[in-house]
diguanylate cyclase (Flaviflagellibacter deserti), 349 residues
Amino acid sequence: MSDSGDDFERTIVFGESALDRIRAYRHPAYPRIYEVWYTYATCYNPLLNQAINDVLRKRGKLSEQDLDALYDMHLSASRFPTRYDEVGTKIREEVDQMVSMLDAARGSASAYGETLDGITRSLEGAEPTKVKMVVEALMRATVDMQSANRELETQLVASREEMLKLHDSLEAIRAESLTDPLTLLSNRKFFDMALEKALSEGKPFSLLVTDIDHFKSFNDKYGHLTGDQVLRLVATAVKQNIKGQDIASRYGGEEFALILPGTTLRPAVTVADHIRRAVMGKELVKRSTGENLGRVTISIGVASFHANDNAASIIERADMCLYAAKRAGRNRVVCETDPEFEAGANRVA
């Protein structure tokens, strides 16, 4: 949701920052090491940033081995599938164990049935003394069967609890894969899925895209940790001004996107303005020093669903509204029926 010029400038700055750190710590400029420092510069992975900052606080520098470990932990493409596979393997093992227990139970029941058959045959024409012996054998077999059933019940209860834990683990992994760890909003992947779903239903909805004004300058001046604080502040304002069915996502960097099901254009503009005012109304204080950093503002573009829309077309209109808001002076909401949007659309055409 940025034009190519903004993307060029932003990525060049991130790249220069990564190279500066590689030079400062005299690391070899291998692609994975560059990726660690580039991601650190973007602040897109707060867990990675926190891990790097922790090492720097303790030792003042990072070795090449440290960076390899950080890459494997936070950036390796194989990390999520590995965790998923580990839980999947445990579930398969648990199922195999339950099947084995049930097989054992069937075996016990079969043996008990054979014992009863044998006893029945033994009783035919038996004398009282033999009947007593047979009854005693039957009681022993019954006690053994009851004991086996109690053990099986205990094992099945334990297995059920373990299966529930593993199910929760899978759900947690799935939720983590769809959540932005810094803001705790949904991430780009979830947004893309939700937008496709809303489009396929064909019901009215509106799309809001928002961008923090002058975020790069703010980030450069006060540092990435304070930049993270700004992102969380905006996320909080968003969450406090939407309904339960609304979907709020961190689209990337300082950009957020919201899908408002069942909301037409003008009510969506009202929601957007409530969010804008909520952000503007909060004063930001630097936690490490207590310094008052003033206020941040956001710009928001709003588009509503058209019958022939696909994901690209509605995002493009919302984007154009967002950049119309930027051109008009920032800290404002522009929708697709506003004069600012129409003027921008005419210039593009």
